[in-house]
Amino acid sequence: MKSFKSGRIVRQAYYNCFIPNKINQEWIIDDPLVNDLLSKADQAIGRLDSFSDFIPNINLFISMHVAKEATQSTKIEGTQTNIEDVFQPRENLPQEKRDDWDEVQNYIKALDFATQEMKQFPFSSRLIRNIHEQLIQGVRGKDKLPGTFRTSQNWIGGATINDAKFVPPVHTEIPELMSDLEKFANNTAIHVPDLIRIALIHYQFETIHPFLDGNGRIGRILIPIYLEQKGILKCPTLYLSDFFEKNRQLYYDNLMKVRTDNDIVQWIKFFLVGITDVSNNSIETFQKIIQLKKETDDKLLRLKGKALDANKVMERLYQSPIIDVMGVQSAIGKSQASAYNLLKELEGLQILAKIGSRKKQDYVFRDYLSLFL
């Protein structure tokens, strides 16, 4: 890795672009700190994955992790939606928040689509294009070739290409570079630890920047689905966007440092620290979920005859922590009056709290939502 050369600057008609070297090769890890960080990351992600075995109905809680990932990943790109907005109906939000809300919802759909597709198909350019089509369909960027690699030049930062912070490769290089990326992702003949492999894939994808829009979000979506496909995770419980958002400048700087200084080692270290940090935070969140669920279940015992209906409502709330009367009515299959009375009971037990206006009254499972803020 110390002898790694990231690529070369190539002059085009009136600007310079960066063409990365291919990555489908054997990688020798000769830095002791990388090995140490890899060991810590492996241990942390292993502990996180173990929760899949002993948390009943863990999929109930996955949707909250996905919502947080979608919120943080799109926030890196400039949206202002928060996780509470995600669970509100679009019409309840101010007009200025609705486009951002649309992008977050598309991210959730794209991530769900990608998770399902990766269970059936290998990592490929075709899969990536299909995910991209889901991501920007009908939102800002919808006119920028959804599901199609770009056929013109793009750039990152700067008002024009001439003052850009980074200019990715000319579009004619994309098919060959993406083919190389695909081969590297699936090459079992070379021995590269999967966590380092996905770190390299993420760097290379962001450097190729093969789409006119949505490259950052697609690159971050690829991380959890790749780890799940490789069997490192039994279900998608690890998302790095929160770490990247909290360390946004370091994220950009470390990616750029590879291109300018050939420092792939520093990028891998940053990525592995992120894996460890996010895994440990997710473990802590799951532990708090377990404790909160126990405390909530104890409260529900006081409802006696209504406990069964209350549990049906709670099952929905663990997936989406904001609900209204109609949502409760749908969950329990009873009258609107019964649904309203149950909401009042849950509010009285301090499980739910009112939010919204008198015209549109919603209830939030605040203690649960706060675990993801």
Could you characterize the architecture of this molecule?
The mean pLDDT is 93. The longest helix is centred in the last third of the chain and has 37 residues, at 264-300. 58% of the residues lie in helices and 5% in strands. A hairpin with a 4-residue loop joins strand 1 and strand 2. The protein starts with 6 loop residues before the first strand and ends with a helix. The chain is globular. With 373 residues, the chain is mainly alpha-helical. It has two domains: 18-285, Fido-like domain (Fic-like fold, Orthogonal Bundle); 289-372, Orthogonal Bundle (Arc Repressor Mutant, subunit A), CATH 1.10.10. It has helices at residues 32-54, 59-76, 83-86, 98-118, 125-136, 174-186, 194-208, 215-229, 241-246, 248-261, 264-300, 307-319, 325-332, 336-348, 366-369, and strands spanning 7-11, 16-20, 322-323, 353-356, 361-364. The chain has 15 helices and five strands. The strands form two sheets. The chain has a three-stranded antiparallel beta sheet. The protein has a two-stranded antiparallel sheet with strand order 1-2.
